[in-house]
Amino acid sequence: LARNPKLMQKVQDEIRERLGKNKERITEEDIGKVPYLDLVIKETFRLHPAVPLLLPRETMAHIKVQGYDIPPKRRILVNAWAIGRDPKLWTNPEEFNPERFVDSPVDYRGQHFEL
User: Fold this and answer.
1) Cα–Cα distances in angstroms (integers) from residue 38 to residues 9, 13, 34, 53, 80, in the given order
2) Could you tell me where the DSSP H helices lie in the chain?
3) From CA 12, how far away is CA 40, in angstroms rounded?
4) Domain range spanning residue 1?
5) How many C-beta neighbours within 10 Å does residue 51 have?
6) Which of 30, 52, 75, 80 minimizes the number of CB atoms within 10 Å of its CB?
7) What is the tally of structural domains in the chain?
8) Has residue 58 been placed in a domain?
9) Whole-model pTM?
10) How does pLDDT run across 13-72, given as a tens digit for each residue?
């Protein structure tokens, strides 16, 4: 947001308008009242995942992933950082654009690994 003052102003205005000017802390329960802030959070997590490499997984059986054969008992790391910047998944992936999540079912809580 520091690189895009217009977006920051939009978020600040929404918070002040919907939550009040004297709100000291925003809770998770408040997020539903500030939809643009919710979009900004999703976009922030897409570009800057809290954990760039997800916890390792171990295959239980032989699997094939994107054409690669992976035998059983192999550890696999999921690169969340790369997923968030994959041009096959995102239009202009390096651009900070919260509006990309308008009408999107992606949620930062749960198992939406796109973020």
Assistant:
1) 15, 14, 7, 23, 20
2) 5-19, 35-47, 80-83
3) 12
4) 1-49
5) 9
6) 75
7) 1
8) no
9) 0.80
10) 999 999 998 888 999 889 889 999 999 999 999 999 988 998 899 999 999 988 999 999
